From TrEMBL:
It is a multi-pass membrane protein. It is found in: Cell membrane. Its main location: membrane. The keyword Transport does not apply. This is Flippase-like domain-containing protein. Residues 1-40, 505-524 are annotated as: Disordered. Keywords: Cell membrane, Membrane, Transmembrane, Transmembrane helix. SUPFAM superfamilies: Protein kinase-like (PK-like) (SSF56112). The keyword Cytoplasm does not apply. The chain crosses the membrane at residues 54-72, 92-114, 197-215, 221-239, 589-608, 620-643, 697-719, 731-752, 781-801, 813-832, 838-855, 862-882. It comes from Streptomyces pimonensis. It holds the Pfam family LPG_synthase_TM.
Length: 891
C-alpha cells in the first residue's frame, strides 16, 4: 500500500477510475491486491506482554523459593498430605498413567511440530526448540545450585530420597518436563485449544505419576512449570515473535465480508508516533460504488505499543489514568465502537461507524464514513478563526452534556472539513459516564491545545463564550503538566527550553554591552588607587543592573501560567492550587527502593554485633568530642556559604539557616534540600533571586572541586602509608582512569556532549560572573574556602572521635583513611535519592571503615553514632530553627 500524509482536502468521493489503468470500475471483477505496497514490516517484534510474563515468572520463582526457605513446616506438612492422599491410588492406575504420559509427553509435541511444518509455520517450531534447549540448560543449572549451594530448607522442599536408591536424591527440576512446557508455550499452543488440552492432560498425568511414585515433590513440580513458562517468554521476548499484522489482501477480504467492494486503499500517517502508535493503522479506501471510507486496523502489536507508559501512569496516578494496560482486541473494538455511537447520540460531530469486523485472530477493523478535511495541527494560523474555536468548544460541550470524556483533545484529533465544521476524531481512549475529574481534564487539555496555536487570551475567551466562566474556572486545578497528554507535555518542555535559552542570551548580551567602558577605569586605577576601586565597583553595580533589567525584559510566562491569569481576570476567586493527581511520585518510589537496599546492606553488617558490651565500654569523652565537632560543622557551613555572597547577610541567622537545613535534608535528598533552603534564605535576606541562585551554585561548584581534590589527596596519602615510596595507590590510579574514560565517553557521544555543553553554558552564564564578584573581595574568598575546609575537618574529626569512642589503640586507623572513607560516603550520600542519604551513607561508611582495617564490631557502632550526631539528633533543633526563621520571614 502507498503512504500519504493526510486525506486529500477536496476528496468527496472515489477518485476518477478512468484515469487509472489498475482501477476496477463497477461491475468488474473484485481486486485481490490494494494499490501499491505498504512499508516493509519487521519480521519479528518484541512484545511488552512477553516481557511482563517473563518478569512475573521470575517473581513467582523467587516467591516459591522464599516459601521453601522460610516456611519449612508448611512445605513439609503439604508434602505429607499429598503423599498420604496419592498413596491410596491403585497401583495399576499409577502404572498405566505413568506409561501413557511418558510416551505421550514426547509424541504430542512432535505431532504438533509436524502439523505446523505442513502448514509452513516453521518459525514457531524453531522458537519452541530454542526455548526447550534453554529451559534444559536452566534446569541443569538449578539442579547444580540446589545440590551444592542452596540452603538445606530449599533442598528438602525440592528433593527427597529416591525410591530406587535411598542414598540418592530426586532431581529438584525435571530435565524433560520443563523443556516440554517451554516448547509448548513458545510455539503458541495456547491459541489452539485442542492441542493445549491434550498436552496439559499429558503433563498432569506425568506429574501425578511421579508424585505418587515418590520421584518428585509438589514444590519441584511447581518450580518446573514456572521455569518452563518463564524461559519460554524470555526466549520470545529476546528473539521476537513472528509479526502477525494483517496484509493488504487481508484488509480487502475483510471489507468484502461486510459488504463493501474496495478499489484502492492508501495508508494514512498522522500524529506523533510516540503517542499514536497504539491507535491503529488508518487507511483511505475507495469503493466501486459509493463514497470512500476511513478504515482503522488494530492488531496485537499496536496494542502492545505504549504498554509500559500506560502501566506506569496507572501505577502512579489516581483513578483517572490511561486505559487498561492489558486490553484485548475485542475490548478495544467494543470500546471504540461504543464511544463512536455515544458521541453521535450526544449530538457531537464524530466519524460515523458503519461496520466492524475481525481480521483473523490477531486484528480487528473499524469502518467509518470518510470525513475529509484537515487536522487543527495542519491548519495555517490565519484559518483558525474565533468561530472555529467556538465550534470546537461546542463539540466538547455536547460530549460533556452526556458525561463523555474524550481524553485526547490534541491537534490531530480535531478535524475541520471544507465547510469549517469541527469533527472530533480519535475517540478510542475516551470514557462514558465519566466523572467530574475527567471532564475538567478535557477542558484543561483543550485550553492548552488551542493556546499553543492562538495564544492564551483567545483560547480562554472562546471557552468562556461557550462553557461559561464557572465551568472554565473549575478546571484550573487540573491545569498541570501531569494531567495533559504526552505530546502536549513534550511541546511545553520544548517551549520552556526555548524560553530559558532566550533569557540566557539576553543576560549574556546585557553583560557584553555593559563592559566597553572598563579599560578607561582600569587606566584611572593605575593613577589613583582609591578612585579606581570606586569606579570598578560602580561598573559592577551598573553591570548587575543591566543584567537584572535584561532578565526582567526577557522573562516570559509559560502557557499554563498565562491561561491561569486569563481565567483569574474573570473569576478572581477561582481555585488555583493544583489538584493532587499523583498516587506516588517517582522520587518517592526511587527513595523507597534505594533506602531498602541501603538498609539491607546495613542490617547485614549489624546482625552479628552485640551492642550491649560495645556501648558499656564506650569512651564518653570521645563521644562528647564528637558532639562538639558536629555542632561546629554548622558554623563552618555558614562560613562556606557567606564566602560566596558579596552582599551583607547576618552571620548568626545564616548559622540558624544551616541548622534548619538539618531538618530539611531529612525530608528531601541531601543535595536538593540544602540548595533549595540556602537559595530561599539568601533571597529573603535581600539578595536578588538570580544572584542568590548563582551564589549557592558557586558554593556548590567550589565545594565539589575541593571535595574531589581532598579525596585524591587523602587517597594518595592512604596509599603511601604502607609503602616507603611516594607512589600513588592503585585506588587513586583506578579513579583517575575511570574519570578519564567517562570524559572520553561523554565527548564522543553527541547526545551526552550536547547535554554537558548546555549545562556548562548555563553555569558560566550565572555562576562564573558571581565568582568574579567574589574575587574582587579576597576576604570573602578566604572565608568561603576556609569554611569548606573547616566543614570537612569537622565531619572527619567527628567520625574519628566516634571511632575512638568504641575502639582502642589496637583498632585505630589513620586520620587520612578516615577522611577518605568520609569523603566517599558523603559523595554517595549526595548522589543517593534517599532523604539525607539514609541507607546509602551508613552502608558506605561501614564497608569503607572495614576495608581500611577497622573491625566490624567497632565500625558499625561508630558509624551509627556519627549519623546519630550529624543527621538524626539535629532534626529537632532544625525543626525549631526552621519554624523560627519562617515566622521571621527569613525562609
Amino acid at each position: 500500500m502507498k503512504q500519504q500524509g493526510a486525506h486529500p482536502e477536496d476528496t468527496e468521493g472515489p477518485p476518477d477510475a478512468s484515469s487509472r489503468p489498475d482501477t476496477a470500475g463497477p461491475g468488474t471483477a473484485h481486486i485481490d491486491e490494494v494499490e501499491g505496497d505498504e512499508p516493509l514490516l519487521p519480521a519479528r517484534v518484541h512484545r511488552p506482554s512477553d516481557l511482563m510474563r517473563l518478569l512475573a515468572g521470575v517473581l513467582a520463582v523467587v516467591v516459591l523459593l522464599a516459601i521453601a526457605a522460610f516456611a519449612h513446616g508448611t512445605t513439609s506438612g503439604l508434602e505429607q498430605d499429598i503423599n498420604k492422599g496419592t498413596g491410596q491410588a491403585p497401583d495399576l492406575l499409577i502404572k498405566i498413567a505413568g506409561l501413557a504420559s511418558s510416551i505421550a509427553i514426547l509424541l504430542v509435541p512432535v505431532a504438533f511440530a509436524i502439523e505446523r511444518l505442513i502448514k509452513r509455520d516453521g518459525l514457531r517450531i524453531a522458537d519452541g526448540v530454542l526455548a526447550a534447549v534453554l529451559a534444559h540448560g536452566v534446569t541443569l543449572a538449578t539442579d547444580l545450585w540446589v545440590a551444592r549451594a542452596a540452603p538445606d530448607s530449599i533442598q528438602e522442599a525440592l528433593t527427597q530420597p529416591s525410591p530406587g536408591d535411598i542414598h540418592a536424591l530426586t532431581d529438584p527440576v525435571h530435565g524433560y518436563l520443563a523443556p516440554v512446557i517451554a516448547y509448548m508455550t513458545a510455539v503458541g499452543m495456547s491459541r489452539r485449544p485442542r492441542w493445549r488440552a491434550v498436552l496439559w492432560v499429558v503433563l498432569l498425568l506425568d506429574a501425578f505419576s511421579m508424585l505418587v511414585t515418590g520421584y518428585t515433590t509438589p514444590f519441584s513440580v511447581i518450580l518446573t512449570v514456572l521455569i518452563g513458562w518463564t524461559v519460554a517468554y524470555g526466549t520470545l521476548y529476546a528473539v521476537g515473535s513472528p509479526n502477525v499484522r494483517p496484509t493488504g489482501r487481508t484488509l480487502t477480504a475483510g471489507l468484502r465480508t461486510v459488504g463493501f467492494h474496495p478499489v484502492t486503499a492508501s495508508r494514512v500517517e498522522s500524529g506523533d508516533a510516540s503517542e499514536t502508535g497504539d491507535r491503529g493503522r488508518r487507511y483511505f479506501v475507495t469503493l466501486e460504488d459509493g463514497p470512500p471510507l476511513d478504515v482503522t486496523v488494530v492488531d496485537r502489536e499496536q496494542q502492545a505499543q505504549g504498554f509500559f507508559y500506560r502501566a506506569w501512569r496507572n501505577l502512579t496516578l489516581r483513578g483517572f489514568a490511561t486505559r487498561s494496560s492489558l486490553q484485548s482486541l475485542r475490548q478495544a473494538l467494543e470500546q471504540e465502537a461504543l464511544l463512536a455511537y455515544a458521541a453521535i447520540a450526544a449530538g457531537a460531530n464524530a466519524p460515523k461507524l458503519i461496520a466492524t469486523s475481525e481480521l483473523g485472530p490477531d486484528a480487528v477493523m473499524l469502518v467509518y464514513e470518510h470525513s475529509g478535511g484537515r487536522t487543527l495541527d495542519s491548519l495555517p494560523d490565519e484559518e483558525i478563526t474565533d468561530e472555529l474555536l467556538r465550534g470546537t468548544w461546542h463539540q466538547v460541550q455536547a460530549l460533556q452534556s452526556r458525561r463523555i470524556a474524550h481524553r485526547r483533545l490534541v491537534g490531530d484529533a480535531i478535524l475541520v472539513d471544507r465547510s469549517g465544521t469541527v469533527i472530533l476524531t480519535d475517540l478510542r481512549v475516551g470514557e462514558i459516564a465519566a466523572g467530574d475529574l475527567l471532564l475538567r481534564m478535557d477542558i484543561s487539555q483543550l485550553l492548552v491545545t488551542l493556546g499553543l496555536r492562538v495564544g492564551a487570551e483567545r483560547a480562554v475567551a472562546s471557552a468562556l463564550s461557550v462553557l461559561g466562566p464557572d465551568t472554565v474556572a473549575d478546571c484550573l486545578p487540573m491545569l498541570q503538566p501531569i494531567a495533559l497528554s504526552r505530546s502536549t507535555r513534550g511541546t511545553l518542555r520544548r517551549l520552556a527550553r526555548e524560553r530559558a535559552e532566550r533569557e540566557r542570551e539576553a543576560v549574556l548580551e546585557a553583560s557584553r554591552q555593559s563592559r566597553p567602558a572598563r579599560p578607561e577605569h582600569e587606566a584611572d586605577h593605575v593613577v589613583l588607587d582609591r578612585p579606581g576601586k570606586k569606579a570598578v565597583r560602580a561598573e559592577q553595580r551598573a553591570e548587575k543592573r543591566a543584567i537584572d533589567e535584561a532578565l526582567e525584559e526577557a522573562r516570559e510566562e509559560d502557557l499554563l501560567t498565562q491561561i491561569r491569569h486569563e481565567v483569574l481576570r474573570i473569576r478572581p476567586q477561582a481555585p488555583v492550587e493544583p489538584a493532587r493527581l499523583e498516587r506516588v511520585r517517582p522520587r518517592t518510589l526511587i527513595s523507597l527502593i534505594a533506602g531498602a537496599i541501603g538498609a539491607y546492606f546495613l542490617l547485614t553488617q549489624l546482625t552479628h554485633i552485640e551492642f550491649g558490651p560495645v556501648i558499656s565500654n564506650a569512651e564518653w569523652g570521645w563521644v562528647a568530642a564528637a558532639v562538639l565537632f558536629s555542632a561546629a560543622s554548622y558554623v563552618a557551613a555558614a562560613m562556606a556559604l557567606l564566602g560566596f555572597v558579596p552582599e551583607r547577610v547576618p552571620f548568626v541567622r545564616t548559622v540558624a539557616a544551616q541548622v534548619a537545613g538539618s531538618f530539611v535534608k531529612i525530608v528531601a535528598p541531601a543535595a536538593v534540600g540544602g540548595v533549595a533552603l540556602n537559595t530561599r534564605f539568601l533571597q529573603r535576606a535581600g539578595v536578588r533571586p538570580g544572584l542568590a541562585v548563582a551564589s549557592v551554585g558557586a558554593s556548590q561548584l567550589f565545594g565539589l572541586g575541593c571535595h574531589i581534590l581532598m579525596l585524591l589527596a587523602f587517597g594518595y596519602l592512604t596509599g603511601t602509608e604502607k609503602t616507603p615510596s611516594l607512589s600513588p595507590s592503585r585506588t587513586v590510579i583506578g579513579g583517575l582512569l575511570t574519570v578519564a574514560v567517562l570524559v572520553l565517553v561523554v565527548t564522543s557521544v553527541p547526545f551526552l556532549r550536547k547535554f554537558v555543553v548546555t549545562r556548562v553554558r548555563s553555569l558560566f552564564a550565572g555562576v562564573v560572573p558571581r565568582m568574579l564578584d567574589v574575587l574582587q573581595r579576597p576576604q570573602k574568598l578566604v572565608t568561603g574556602i576556609g569554611g569548606m575546609l573547616l566543614l570537612t575537618a569537622c565531619f572527619v574529626m567527628c567520625l574519628d572521635a566516634s571511632i575512638r569512642a568504641f575502639g582502642d589503640e589496637t583498632t585505630s586507623v589513620s586520620i587520612a583513611s578516615v577522611a577518605v572513607v568520609f569523603l566517599a560516603g558523603n559523595a554517595l550520600g549526595s548522589a543517593a535519592p534517599t532523604p539525607g542519604g539514609v541507607g546509602a551513607v551508613e552502608a558506605t561508611l561501614t564497608v569503607g571503615l572495614i576495608a581500611v582495617g577497622l573491625p566490624k564490631e567497632v565500625a558499625a557502632p561508630a558509624v551509627l553514632l556519627f549519623r546519630l550526631l550529624t543527621l538524626w539528633l539535629p532534626v529537632l533543633p532544625g525543626w525549631l530553627a526552621f519554624n523560627h526563621l519562617t515566622r521571621k520571614a527569613a525562609l
